[in-house]
Fold these 4 entries.
Entry 1:
Amino acid sequence: MIVTGAMNMKSTEPALSETARAKVNLTLRVVGRRADGFHDLESVVAFADCVDRLTLTPGTELSLVAGGPGAQECGQTADNLVLKAARLLGERVTNLKTGVFALDKHLPVAAGIGGGSADAAAALRLLARANGIAIGDRRLIEVARLTGADVPVCVRSEACVMTGVGETLQPLGLPAMPAVLVNPRVPVATKDVFAALGLRKGELHLGVSDVIEAIVWPKTGAPTDDWLAMLADGTNDLEAPAIRVQPVIGEVLARLRATGARLSRMSGSGATCFAIFGNEADARRAAQTIRLDRPQWWAHAGTLS
């Protein structure tokens, strides 16, 4: 267990809880690198049913306690995005009510599924509830953007098309899809993957013409087959550079593709990869096979939506 910050006196207010769902990039195109060094992206984002859990006990001092099976992977808790988000919001909201955050950490870190971003987003939702702040409040939206590129989409925690540097979100009526997520428990730094992609400031990525044209995604209620056909035409532009950084990602993808999955791809900047199946039973069998073959890997069978 890791603790940071001053502990509060016992609170008379009830604790508030939120789940932080894993983010999965079903597609990810790198449009180009801007003059300021940030990368413009276009990504179809879904969320999984594997989660971290965050609790806020209102009090006078801001602090964070991290526990759970992934607590030791969080690094220095003082640098955790939960506290960063809370401090940034406190700079914008007078007399912001905070307290003790308790993080039950299960998602792998530096894994391409936005675990830290999802935790920060959960913290913002908790602070919004504790202080009567609307989720659409401009101050909260600004803090989400400043905390991290994936935090705005994780605040909403619903399927959407994410563009720009994560600030523009278009909701999608994505159906629930049985899936398996696999991470080889090798952390991958996003900065290393973008460095391997090798775009200079102001440079567009090759093949960007098909990104600029607006894609018409299936309507809410459309058959899963329609969605899979559209998603199969996509790609993850960071997959190849991520494999150069951590070749084990290629092994993960090969094993997922050998399961008979309908679609397999890397999420974000890796190393987590996902596979979509026709039914839940096939997804569970695939995950179990991978766990038996590679017990050191993290594998989750569940649903993307």
Entry 2:
Amino acid sequence: MSGLSSSSCVVLVGGGVASAAAGAGLRVQGYDGRVVLVSDELHLPYERPPLSKEYLSGKFDVADFQTHPEGWYAENEIEVLLGTRVSSVDPVARRVTLSDGAALEYDALVLATGVRARALPGFTGDRVHSIRSITDTERLASRLTQSQHLAILGAGFIGCEVAAIAAAQGVRVTVFEPAPVPLARALGADFGRTMVDIHADHGVEIRSGHQVTSMTETDDGLLLHTADGETIACDELLVGVGSIPNTELAVAAGLRIDEATGGIATDEFGRTSDPRIYAIGDVASRLHPILGRAIRVEHHDTAQRHGANVAANILGHEEPFSDAPYFWSDQYDHSLKALGHAGPDATTVIRGSVEDRCFSVFSLEDGRVTAVATLDRPRDLMATRKLLGVPHQATAEQLADEGFDLKALLPQRPRTRPNGARQSGVCPSEACS
């Protein structure tokens, strides 16, 4: 879509970093029309990763992880409607109706509605928690100060991060994970087993292969009942068993949903099945031009980059989004980082020492590195970032050999001889034949 005039209006639905980045991108690229950001939260857009880390521990104030300070929105003439929901979208009239009954007409609409924590039937009450918002974290933090035993359902990233914070505050923590090895699907079994050992060193018990099936609330706390007949008492319970994309507005508006990922289907430019409506961030299932398939990524970095990219596309620049997914997790004094997106048939290759808890797991597909997960090995991640976007051929033996320089896999640039002739890597007679 090109040629938006100064009388046009772009409506951003959602109060996260994706919406904020889209608004900033529009202004940076010279758009001088109306921009309205609608958020059902009461806080200005903020980054969510600190919710289960620095904010829960008390190291951050809200202002420390706001996307922009309050004055920035007024300075950039971005209207922010907090505590307001978009209740419906009319694609034909190009109008959204708000929870207060007001309506906004749009020339371009951006859905950045994110995801919500998956709830479990029967697990509700004042002592049951999830983490998706500032309010969620504040409630859990206030209860941890009085808690002796926190139970967590799900050893995913949020569950493990909260476990690390609670343990550092002297709270006993038990994590229940139905899978035989936690994080195996996302990072591989070696990573999962290593993280279990790291948490055990800090007093956290991760009970893999154990499923909590029901809960009973008592005057003193909660009783958790497992599938194998055990009952465990705890003070507070965190449910961290995944998320659900907030696609209700899109479904009601008749937009296409990607059945494989559950997100709002878009092309490589972020456009939905309605060319005036875009979807970005956690809720978007975007066609990736390099991978050749749609992926939905629930990570801060992708959401932020989606926002900047969709701003360019709204203004008619037609820039496909081909960045590799990236995320990180800090637990105790360890840094876990991952980059890329591995297919189901990828071969995994370990570089470094699992025993020393300093290793990387590469995903190799048809001789190409498609992803890497690292534990305290930032150089491997930096080298992979350069590889993902260029043609290369790698072998499992090269990746596993710590003496092999990963930079050698990058395409070699022709060198210039002192007399100005190009050195192509073949002898002169071959080059001229």
Entry 3:
Amino acid sequence: MTFKHLILAAAALCGLALGSAHAATSADAGLIQRGAYLARAGDCIACHTARNGKPFAGGLAIQTPIGRIYSTNITPDRENGIGKWTYQDFAALMRHGESKAGYAVYPAMPYPSYSRVNDDDMQALYAYFEHGVEPVAQANRKNDIPWPLSMRWPLKIWRWAFAPTPEPFADVTATDASARHGAYLVEGLGHCGSCHTARGVTLQEKALTGDGNSIYLAGGGAVDGWVAPSLRNEHGGGLAGWSEAEIVEFLHTGRNTHTASFGAMNDVIADSTQFMTQRDLQSIALYLKALTPQHANATPYVYDSHVAGQLYAGHVPAVPGAQLYLDRCAACHKSNGKGNGRAFPALAGNPVLQTSNPTSAIHIVLSGGAQPATNTAPSTLTMAPYADILTDQQVADVVSFIQTSWGNAGGKASADQVAKLRKGAVPVEARGFPMAEPELHHAAPADQASGTRG
């Protein structure tokens, strides 16, 4: 676990119990079930479960600029978890970042977002964690943060400055009840802004809601090799080219005709959004499509068949990276860049490739990629890493070719950028996905199979 979990995934305090839940004693079964669903929406298991550890027992290492912190045990164990917490204790943590022990928690937990959760849903979450999760007697680990950075009182100043006392949820930008419900999910439990909103120098989100600004969900910065793209209804990397149905499909399956999920978003799809109801997903899509562009002058993507025609005819353009793409990438993504259905994502028109920042594309080439297995799309399709096969310059060349071909308007990559990202590249198999073999096609372009050419 790295710093991306501070910026991109953020810790959560709710999730799905994967083990046997202990019997409810004082809480209504329906309330517990509602809490379990809301816990899915919050994707808490992503941060409060260590790899190969017990659900919600904590212990996951989160690297931050001041040192390593470890997620805490949030099972109902009375000695190590939250089994002695009252509802008021729970709500104070969720809404104010204040622990039962009286100290402020690190903003790795997105409590500024959770503060928007209404009382009924907060009660359901509390019931679930107290009566629907199996207690685990696992002690919390001490954070590896040196003194004086380990002092907690500065966190109260941060909270005062950037997480003021929450107000009841009220979205004024949404035009109907469904869109308002989508705003409630996105801005609250979904904490989408934790990744997709730019942050200031003190790591605070520059906007917590879509009310009266175009910063919220307009894209986050590059962290640990990934860039969270814009979720606003805009061209040049946003969702302007997506229909509401395509947004729902992506959240439900991790893929659509435009792209496939990668990086931290894989966990969000696998652990959270794939389990949400169609009503909730449709509400989210409606809200996102209602967000006005931050970059109103960005032009729509238009497919350019020039490079595709050259590659198909066997005339490799005299452009760095073109031959590399044909040899190593075209078998899956095709010479026309349109991919192969939902098995291998399209590169032509892919929103991730329309911005000036090539970080995500570089990371995928170096580390490989994987589409998460979901209930409706159970195949885990992977792309093997090329870090041990291609030089920094070769990676830069093929990424630059991808970002500027077929009408893509992305920026070119440099060998220096690749060298910096290579230091933190984690192979896809180390992230828990099976590894596919790299493509090693070296046939002349004219001999490529028609399925490869496009």
Entry 4:
Amino acid sequence: MVTIKDVARVAGVSTATVSRVVHDAGKVGDACRAKVKTVIDELGYRPNTNARALVSKKSNTVGVVMPHMSPAFFGRLTSGAEKAARAQKFRLLVSNSMGLSQEEGEAIASFEEHACTAMVLHSKESDEKSLCELVAKHPALILINRFVADIAERCVWLDSLAGARQITEFLLEKGHRKFAIASSDAPEEDAVARVTGARQILAEAGIELDESDVVRTATDLDGGADAGRALLKRGIDFTALICHNDMQAVGAMNVLQDAGIRVPEDVSVVGFDNLYVSRACRPRLTTMTYPIEEMAAYAIELAIKLADGSEAPPSRTHLFLPRIEERDSVADLN
């Protein structure tokens, strides 16, 4: 492995001069700088960022902990985080917690070992007390896609309740009066908020949503198919189906169409997230845009500012709102 001493020896300069060239700091003559850069390129020298981090207790890395890696939603989150980190000349460290609270803590401890203080955590499993303790211990840790009232200023989150209310109002405006909901079978805040938001708007319109009108399954394609089969089994007595996310919506839509139920002529279907699949399926899916890439970029920038002390701890919450992306899966019954 090529070291800074090797570069200094070949270039005939001190290691301090090489360091100044590498970090573009201090006074170095143009000719000397050019010579050192040439030697660096010829030898293939790469600075040991971990060693520098251990000495300075800081690093130009930002850590992101996610519960899963494969779903497209988390791919978009990572993409937004990566772009924001690079724009700040930071590198991204990504850890997969597999949805386990213990793994979240171990990932954060690993970031600390690499002198990484700017961190973004996506946690749906840890309880609020544990998250408050983590945030208190790590002054540059930001929670994404989770709202905890006691640490609201460190949460970058989406108002799922408002999103559910908006998409339900949209369906009512299209003349729909008979509804069904495919929700998540996991006890997560977003799932509760979306069912609650839909119920609120329907109640305001004088429409009662019975508990039997809500089916709860996994939120992937298979879960959506399960939801579709459950709805077929109990009988189709609704014209609008609100799904927890796009993958679930596409799975349900496929089962309905295979059974001869036309979308949107017989049943209108809406999703949530605005993933690529919502544009690739047929009919193209009407959905709520989840600005997760924007949220991830915002969270990264906030974590970096807190880590380097360029911004005082915020005293405000960081709320994002979804918006409707109207396509072809909703019929106008008016």
